[in-house]
Records
---
Amino acid sequence: MPGSKAEGAFILHNDLPWALETRRNHFGFGPITSASHLFVRNNLPAPAASLTDQGDGWSFDVVGCAREGSLTLADLKRMKNRTVATVLQCSGNGRDFFPHDPSGSQWGVGAAGCVLWTGVSVADIFEQFGGVQSGLAYLTATGGEELPEGVDKDAVVVERSVPIEKGLRDCLLVWEMNGAPLPVIHGGPVRLVVPGYFGVNNVKWVRQLAATARESGAKIQQSGYRMRPEGLAGGPEQPSMWRMPVKSWLNGPGADGAAVLAGTNTLYGVAFSGERGVDAVEVSADDGATWQQAEWVGPDLGPDAWRTFQFAIRIPVGEHRFVTRATDTQGDQQPRVAVHNHRGYGHNGWRDHGLSVRAVAELPKTEIKGSLQASESTADTVSASMAMLALSDKALEGKQLFLQQAQPGCGVCHSLADANARGVVGPNLNQLRPNLAQVESAIAQGVGAMPAYGAQLSQSELEALAAYVVEATR
Amino acid sequence: MPGSKAEGAFILHNDLPWALETRRNHFGFGPITSASHLFVRNNLPAPAASLTDQGDGWSFDVVGCAREGSLTLADLKRMKNRTVATVLQCSGNGRDFFPHDPSGSQWGVGAAGCVLWTGVSVADIFEQFGGVQSGLAYLTATGGEELPEGVDKDAVVVERSVPIEKGLRDCLLVWEMNGAPLPVIHGGPVRLVVPGYFGVNNVKWVRQLAATARESGAKIQQSGYRMRPEGLAGGPEQPSMWRMPVKSWLNGPGADGAAVLAGTNTLYGVAFSGERGVDAVEVSADDGATWQQAEWVGPDLGPDAWRTFQFAIRIPVGEHRFVTRATDTQGDQQPRVAVHNHRGYGHNGWRDHGLSVRAVAELPKTEIKGSLQASESTADTVSASMAMLALSDKALEGKQLFLQQAQPGCGVCHSLADANARGVVGPNLNQLRPNLAQVESAIAQGVGAMPAYGAQLSQSELEALAAYVVEATR
């Protein structure tokens, strides 16, 4: 499991390249999916670390404009930037629900997330090179994955095309995800974001951004990622996996087999429709015979994001199944059953996305884990320098005060190696290394949670204590 | 450094308890601060792991309502939830800019972040217990930190009060931050969020939520966190660090000494005002003699969040200083100089928050790091079972095809321990463990990036290959 990913939050479908599905009960209630919980689906392994480690030096070519050239990430960061929230969803999300067992990772609901991206618009980039040449109909992005020798490039290269109007309207090259640098596993240093389109179009590790006359000749574009009848081979005449249709599902409570306490509960989930946003989402407890409208929760992050919703409901003891149905701003409503297709793409049927919930009268008692104390491990981080310190007479007087005379003793709250003090309430003085004035002020007047001791100490004692703390932490 | 925090992104002010400041050049361009980049300021060390590990079993008392009682996190999750974005900012953020050297961590701009919280409203919680008793004027929350023996509780306990009207209007108990479970270091399992108020009010590890007649008697409330003239002791008659005033600053480019390339650049930063939101932010390149309005970027997450802004500007070679001044929705404008106060709290003066930028004609060449190949380390994860496999005759025939006859060889793309194949383009077959039908379908028709080989192989060869892959991965 990649180090940045939360333990226990994923179903591992594959490791080279990564295919990690967010477990349904590990989605949050809020509208953003944290990097630690976001699914991963890479078509090929990431470029070598020696390439992705270049950060701002990462470069890519720009093709199909009045002038050709290249840019680095540093160049992008000097340009006008944009931040948008989009749903990132694998074309095969929901494949596991198709009855004909299409090959590929058996994703349930968790090959999707909603992310805040920051980057530069493709239109601004093309503008820098004099604008798109006339007659070019597609935006084509090429990933930076290294291709093995002996393999036909078009068979494996990750290169995707979308209509040029789409590219110029709202596509971005991004370097930031949820406020942090875009992780390599998600396409960093630089990735294409195609708001509202399926994941495969959001090419990672972009090495070329082109305006082209035709769709890419790569297999992943020509015959891959096409909606095609079962048994038929893929081809360019079939619909490409571009815009994501309206969809919703519940993430809890009670997903992945966890029992819920019978009584009033709050169902929660997500709803979206590529480029459009959603108008409403309804919940049914009787397999769609009757529906009731759910309530939106949290901020609306825009038409390409998902919205989170909730629905308060009394759940009696027993097994239940709840389904949801979203309607987008153009009136499209989630169908009961998905469009059957060979590869198991684009599943948005409400029936199969239902949440099965087992409600019980009493939950099993929470097991209290072993009594490992956090302080046990952290106490050892006190750097106990055992070398004898040469203290001045004043400081030696202060040491006595520190150890014995202060009530309560200074070491109750502070760590100080020379005094063998390991308190963890106040600052570690070896780390803080305060100066005389700071110690005197803290003791005399208090600071933060520390009370004032000014009334209990003479000026001479105050100075002695300060001298000790300063000398003992040099 | 806590494990979940991004390497290099912080200034360490203290470790027991943690005081970590986000470096100015590690803030993102977007409106949300990732958990990996969010500052940490804890008054006391976190409760023992044995307590915080309880997750949904975490419980807290509810006091001051018609009925008293307690709730667990599991109870909260059954209630109606809310998601809000708020700026979390330490009262001492900007302390380093005060000329009188107030004691405490010398925060610059980085003791702040903007976060999406999910939880339950305090009003709903109190409602569950029959509502607040009449005459109680404060919401008082108590943290779950363990207090050392021998120390006066009121001197160290983290217990804060805010007006009850504020508590009932928009305060939350939260368990989720940016879509992931609230980390312990940030107050998980359960924390109070007081939108628009300084950090100290957002009590962590909440063990008691009370409506009270008076403000808490704790030192942190009575005399701590008060705006007071230099030299004066703290007391309850002074203003408490509650609502955050209007503020803005630039985060880049060129923060923390990084040179920028002269020419057109985009300045970017954040602006906010507690409970109000911001109307405008202006930029000045001449220390406030003239101002120009900046442009908002990204979604507006609400009146308690910050907004990100940008300003395109040509920067000539040389040293420059840019300042910004925000105006909130009630007309309050950031002052030039902060209100001088003993503890160095609440700094929002625009002059000191300026960004110094050094622009150069040419940037130093990016150093290409050593040629460590990602594939070197990942290749070792192939589980190379060296035990002899008992293969059927059919599978042995398939092994020859796998190793020699296929063009290109299967191992160019796939890992398969029995064949000593270590390709990383396609799935690792030992991990995938496909069944006969899946292998046959993939070879005959292709799948994902894999081309179809159906035309090159006889049915018997296809079956042999499939038999080999299945038997070799059992």
Note: The longest helix of chain A spans residues 459-472.
---
Amino acid sequence: MGRVGRAVIAHGQDFEIREYPVPEPEPNTILLRQELAGLCGTDVHNWHNGIEGEMLLGHENVGIIDAIGEGVTMDFVGNPICEGDRVIFAPGTTHGAYGFQSDPDQPPHFRGGFADYIYLCYPDTCFIKTDAPPKVAVLIEPFTIGVHALMRANVQIGDTIVVQGSGPIGLMTLICAKISGAAKLIMVGGPSRRLELARRIGADVTVDIEEVSSVEERTELVRSHTPRGAGADVVFECAGSLPAIPEGLGYIKYSGTFCEVGHFVDIGSFDLNPNRMLMRRNVRLEAIWGSRPEHFVRGLPILEKDEFPFAEMVSHVLPLSRVREGFDALSGEYELAGETVIKIAIGANEE
Amino acid sequence: MGRVGRAVIAHGQDFEIREYPVPEPEPNTILLRQELAGLCGTDVHNWHNGIEGEMLLGHENVGIIDAIGEGVTMDFVGNPICEGDRVIFAPGTTHGAYGFQSDPDQPPHFRGGFADYIYLCYPDTCFIKTDAPPKVAVLIEPFTIGVHALMRANVQIGDTIVVQGSGPIGLMTLICAKISGAAKLIMVGGPSRRLELARRIGADVTVDIEEVSSVEERTELVRSHTPRGAGADVVFECAGSLPAIPEGLGYIKYSGTFCEVGHFVDIGSFDLNPNRMLMRRNVRLEAIWGSRPEHFVRGLPILEKDEFPFAEMVSHVLPLSRVREGFDALSGEYELAGETVIKIAIGANEE
Amino acid sequence: MGRVGRAVIAHGQDFEIREYPVPEPEPNTILLRQELAGLCGTDVHNWHNGIEGEMLLGHENVGIIDAIGEGVTMDFVGNPICEGDRVIFAPGTTHGAYGFQSDPDQPPHFRGGFADYIYLCYPDTCFIKTDAPPKVAVLIEPFTIGVHALMRANVQIGDTIVVQGSGPIGLMTLICAKISGAAKLIMVGGPSRRLELARRIGADVTVDIEEVSSVEERTELVRSHTPRGAGADVVFECAGSLPAIPEGLGYIKYSGTFCEVGHFVDIGSFDLNPNRMLMRRNVRLEAIWGSRPEHFVRGLPILEKDEFPFAEMVSHVLPLSRVREGFDALSGEYELAGETVIKIAIGANEE
Amino acid sequence: MGRVGRAVIAHGQDFEIREYPVPEPEPNTILLRQELAGLCGTDVHNWHNGIEGEMLLGHENVGIIDAIGEGVTMDFVGNPICEGDRVIFAPGTTHGAYGFQSDPDQPPHFRGGFADYIYLCYPDTCFIKTDAPPKVAVLIEPFTIGVHALMRANVQIGDTIVVQGSGPIGLMTLICAKISGAAKLIMVGGPSRRLELARRIGADVTVDIEEVSSVEERTELVRSHTPRGAGADVVFECAGSLPAIPEGLGYIKYSGTFCEVGHFVDIGSFDLNPNRMLMRRNVRLEAIWGSRPEHFVRGLPILEKDEFPFAEMVSHVLPLSRVREGFDALSGEYELAGETVIKIAIGANEE
């Protein structure tokens, strides 16, 4: 097969498009034509610090099966597969993680989503067939973070929940909280377009951090929306800023739960007073790290039901040649083409 | 106060309206004007067997505060109350249960819902102020059964759930399952109007037991809608018939959970094979008995959000003088005035 | 290798010793020299009904590594292994179960414990190196049933626990309950030698079913030893008789837990009244089916600490030629050589 | 009643013995003759910072019922009581906490344990009759901290557990871990006499922080005792020093649990890196604040069984007149009368 495919190679803070021969799938592999690859805050953080060596980024992926290697007959949950099927997959495998592999010049080259093809090893990769549209399916990876968080948070019917941060992880967590029995959902974030989306998802109260700019005021406001001002049952910290943690701990009621879902990259430390911030509140804290195949299996049918405005979260689709614009927008003003960015996805096709 | 109120007294299978003087509330009591009182399957079962002695039935209640005894200033969750507030309350107290007290001729008489007034002791009674409309608020007691069941069932995001029985308890449990993360909801019941309501609530699949009349066919059909035919994660038995239990156990996957929510009255025994029905499935079984104040506190805000067609479940409102018609409908064809019965509520006002 | 080994072949109710060539281990297999193989109640039940075809029984095994096939370097938990190491293993694999395979004349023949050798496939088999003595190590399989039961029962510090049945499963469950925080342990069983062992393990109260022969009396006695007579927090049914289930349900307090750990074989049905036996007690029931590799990993270090009289539970060791005597004892009077039988193990060596 | 009793009044860092008239119990109260009152690290911390105003300290108490006010007939769990019974009680009530009340000159004066009498309100106080000897019973309050910690930690059979800190809270937590299914118990603390007691309780490994003085070495040593060096399942931080927290987090395996049981007083803050210390370990953290009546009810029967060297933990008993010596020892060298201090109890009787 003499086909050639493009891949966006990151090094330092530069991006470069290279062409590689498209591999014929070996036994126990499959080859996907990329449809969409989400751009994640972790990508932006790593790029901001400068990518060491060379890397083909893109770990939030959906694609179409182009060719199937010998011995592959079904997806992770046992559904039969054939060429032309759409699949999503978990980026982590026992031998590494798609979208985080170095040395893209090494065959089989296509091991990240910012490219025309993606080459999957089997059975190492949890990939699952789906009929969700690409703009919905591309969200599965961030959605699984919310699924993981909710499975750890042990939300009960009737709980009052706060989500800090209205980026993709915050909105995904909000959706999962909405379908997990919360009686009242409070979103603390911004800017306003994201909060508007949060309300459509089901946030009963939104607090705009630009409008209510002091921690004390926000804390008082959030607590005023909890039963008898006693605080929230569960707080999800999805903002990813250090001061959000002590602020969020201050929203919680005695014996409540704090889920840390915001620090997937190391941005430093803060002063934690274990007596005042943790002990006196008899609090449980769950630190949520990534997601596992189980969360993909559980989350996908929820995406497929499409009862929430998932597709609208993909605010922008950019071709491979404009990857940098996406990184710039997410490290700057969260604006692109005059519109608030929520999730940027990279598509293989040029417009 | 020389007021007089009516109460429907049941004895054997007869009903009779009596008039009693309306009590002035003693210290630590409150007096409600009844708005609506639900008619429950348990009432019908007990009446069918013949009420021993005399009893003022009605344990699913909503009313308006008519007068407040000295010392009562707030409801169970700490909200201040005043005359004119609407309240719901848990029928169980440390000293008995509203709607199940014998000797209605004994003052204070009004200790059940099929009457013009309801007299509440405090702080024994968990009563809570609400602004839900009466036709929604009257459903809180059956709704708490669903809340209790879901808190025991430990449903996880992405689960496949079956509810057996499409009466009020089944529909309430379906709503609670819908907001607890289920990816797929399967309702097995009938007749068709109830199943139509189930679909509007969120049932993805409905199985009409009149159309699919053999246990084997139903089991095969239900399992065909579960992932890889492996069975449901959780089954809620809300049908209340004995054969529904072994049938429902057959819907479950290995290591799944079976919630028994249907046998609030003793209708006899069935042959249970512990090896084949329980052990080989490594199953967990939760038997849900009634509900507690916590379930009222958790359930009420969900009712108040009114995101489900709660009010439509009250298919019929009958005045005190027509209580018997309600009992007849629920012990017969589930038809009244030419319409399928879901929940019948008794109102104080004559039309 | 021209070695020959013996195997006890069961067919119908007969046993016969055959000789088979000892296989050289293929790649990804290991060969054990059998040390001890426990005789289990399930074996006895199946034998009693007549073994269909031919079978090499014995699924509770400990052996010494005789030879290691190419590619096998470590046990299930990652410890390096070499010839001469003692190992235990879980009898269930993805392709079947040691001790339950038909057609023993088919190579590799040695797929059950009543034989001179045991041939293990890898990595299908969870086998773990141990330095426990053989009479302790041979108990790991029944011990994992207790581990599984306790992990499901959710015992809390200070609970009052009842174990019904003082056979090996009952005693193993008692040990697991003892180390899981129980404040009071009540054993209901017999005969007296087993109850004496139960007391040495830590039973605070023993009830001899021969001395206290009526269900009512036993129930009253058991409940009199629970806090305020309210019933036990958790009951483990390890007796394996049908009437033990309703009796044990009667020991439990409101909202308690009943663990069914006794019906690994189908001995029929009993009349279950779901209202009276389950609902009115708001009970949780866990049906424990076998055990999984996790339970071996967790249970083995407890056996190795040897803080309980494990070795004494192996009341009798019989050579291969006397297997039938073991079956006879366990299907009759639980006496062998004038002593009460607890666990019989089959050893490869003739005395 | 003209009796007079002594009380040790703390103000600033001074102690003074005052005499007060002994109150006749009002209805719904009971009067105890103090037997022993434990001296707690929290007392020492507060005293070290200087007691504001005046306070009668002593919240770990056991006493004999001297007189019973009208209306009191049973203890918290429903046992009948009479004069002469020994009782322990939870120091917290809905209206305050025994041993932390200001204004001891106000009647009824005796509201802390460093005195001849203790005056209990009813039913506000959870008091329970016991037949444990005073030196065992006086430990119930610190023991309940361990009970609370273990109920939150969700230890499973076969877990590897680390306890940091070998003071009374650490030793109590060690006992609770021992009876909760741990396969391996590792105690990190000192000095040697305490570690020797830890080994007798059941610690399989003890790490003396004086001998192994670097964090890196201790971490390596602790991890070398965990399965495959992967870290402990659960770590209990009972040392109460700030650096113990990041150190203890470093002992844990991926997805393990960290229980913070050491910071009952505010001693400041430390630098917490949420990405490296929490997220990357996918950790759960439980902050344990005090204990509740349930923990007394659950813990007392364990104390009463006396299967551990409880009484030996009371290393010193001092009369009221020597309270200061206890505070000095606990704020200094943990030595008194030439012996290592574990728990100091204050007795009413002068030697």
Note: Chain A has a mean pLDDT of 95.
